[in-house]
Amino acid sequence: MAIPGRIDIGIPGMNEILHGGLPRGLTVLLSGEAGTGKSIFAYQFLYRGLRQGEPGVLLELEDYPARVRMNMAMFGWDVKPYEDRRSFAIIDCFTGGVGEAARKERYIVRDPTDIPSIIEALRTAVKDVKAERVVVDSISTLFLIKPEYARQAVIQIKRLLVSLGCTSLLVWQRGVASGNIPITTYIEHIADGVIRLELEDTGEEYRRILVVSKMIGTKHSIRKHPFEITEAGIIVQP
To answer: Can you tell me whether residue 14 is helix, strand or coil?
Structure first.
């Protein structure tokens, strides 16, 4: 259970790891390699908020919104009713508005390479639904489409979300680089917290590991915590 002034991330085990939940208003980097469960973690965070009356926004840069809804529904997280009553929004920064399904989306960035338009769409959606939780999936894409502007864009996104009082997860694909310079260290520096999802080779198999390497405003475990992806979402061993 989260203590006053904190929020329940929605991942069993995380409140214990964070000694009472995630402090409100933080912008947290959710970092990991492909296949570690970053998007599932982020969706679970958003859906927990919706179930608790905390509106949310997903800024989607890597997939079709229709497919995101399908993927969430596989875990029992049906967000359509929340979209219908304007307490949840997906911003389509992937399709460019191309295709029949895309034309049905309420929030679309027509040019996914236009970072000012992405930030303005985020501002509009957050204000429209009065979002308390926000996910950007993923900021890595900004470094792939506009590497020369991406660092400043991340700072602008954080500044915006903090000013609007949101608690946010910025999803980061480890291994992305700007030119030949790895930028994970830079991104971890500007985030208020860092949650790392890893695949650890045990010799016979890989196991999923979660580590909180940084979190302002709270004590937290720095141990490696095994976690599983189940039919109901992620469960972490505290």
So the answer is: helix
